[in-house]
Design a protein that fits this description.
72 residues; alpha+beta; two-stranded antiparallel ribbon
Amino acid sequence: MVSESPHVLKNQKLNVSIYVKAIDKAGNERLVIVSPQNEALWWNDPAIIILAIGALILVVFGVIKWLRRRDL
């Protein structure tokens, strides 16, 4: 992507790394990685929350099944 300064970032949350690659007319390249200022926390990821809830449901059903089998 050819850009001019300043370039507006699509991700305004600044929660992921930003990769900036500059190439001059001579073909020289430079890559700079800017670390996130507002790093995303693991519990803010919906996929992880869904997996955790699913695991909790499996554990609860397993305990209920174990208790029923134990009473017989």
